[in-house]
Give the backbone structure.
Amino acid sequence: MPKLWKNRKYHINRLTEFFRLGLGHNSLANYYTVTFQLVQHHKYSLTEIENLIPFERDIYIAMLQKWIEEENERQKQRLN
């Protein structure tokens, strides 16, 4: 086997390992729960969600959580 193919296989394995370690915090149940909530409550399309790069999805979810927390604070201040 040519050296080029060996190196390519090595890099693909390393990339797979990187994503497996980097995304190990997300269980299958959590994935479906969050996806359902994004579709039902925040009007994302399933296609949009599934086309996101995994870390990109995490960034959008973090931004959405921050926005929800800020909205909840604003509502509490309006009621007081």
